[in-house]
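Collaboration report, partner site 2.

Our partner group contributed sequences for two proteins of shared interest, and the home lab folded both. The records are reproduced in the order in which they were received, starting with the first partner submission.
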Amino acid sequence: MRTFDYSPFYRATVGFDRVFDLLDSVASQSGANGYPPYNIEKAGDNAYRIVMAVAGFAEAELNVTQKENELLVSGQSAPTNGQDDRQYLYRGIAGRNFERRFQLADHVKVVGAKLANGLLTIELQREIPEEKKPRAIPVVAGNGQPALTH
């Protein structure tokens, strides 16, 4: 099983360490077969992207669901009722059903998903509530007046 080194992201971000820890732990727990393969990309300061290789699946056969801090991506190929009239000499394109779970950090929301060229791209956005954002605290002098700043 492959493991990913997220340490370069730790240096570039503050407060997102948990995002990568959670994604890494879920990647090691979910499905020992590693199907379907995926990438996790940092698309901006508060934006992330999960790209999954889902060749052979149509939009209607894919399901992306977020419930609280869990993202569930599943694929159910359309049943053929045993009526597949193709005769395969070699079948290397996996078309099996799958279910992949990702644990998301607090305040991370799925903002969209699209399927193009066999890749499912899921856009994630971290939306920090106003009351959780950093705010400047004025420093006052000993006499109760705000300190002069230059």
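Second partner submission, folded after the first:
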Amino acid sequence: MRIRSTIFRILCVIFAVFIAAEAGAQKKKGEVTAPPDIHAVSKSENLAFPAVPDKQHKFISDYMLREAQAIVKQGYKVETERQGEIIVVTIPASSLFMPNSTELEIAGQKLLDPFTAYLKTEGRFKILLAMHSDDTGSASYLEKLTGDRLKAVMGYIEKHCEHPEQIAGYALSDKEPVRPNSNIANRAQNRRLEIYIVPDQELLRQATKR
């Protein structure tokens, strides 16, 4: 029995080594690894995955640049991250909600409509939503405010897109200000929704065929 147990353990080790080697070989080839649950990881982890292999970087960055330019033409504030691979759209909270309100305005709904198009194809993009506030109010109030506003935004997009499972959201309260909360103008800039458009595995597969 001990001999069989030892042999079994040896075989398990060999199998594990084989799997690890195969995974390493796939990574070198630029193949996409298994995705994490986008609803169970942090924003930074979601923004890091999937990594774009060097060979596909130009295709992806050029593709996302064209998308970013199209969004700019619609009047949105747009930036890019990860060397042009990720689009970040910033919408002032005042364009979505009345002061201290968590009810999405009709005008705000219209601002969100263009982003549902990125969720038409399964696995092509993932959308990350980050809701921010200034530091006016208690920590519990700001957490609830950004949490409820995030739910309103996510609920609207999920209702009007084909793949709501490709959306993840983060209520970040006043934790990531873009300006010091020292005056009215700065606080207004801190109250914002950020929409991250991240190329996902289907787009990477398309890039590998180029």
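Feedback sent to the partner group on the second submission included the following. Residues 48 and 82 are 8 Å apart (CA to CA). The two ends are 55 Å apart (CA to CA).
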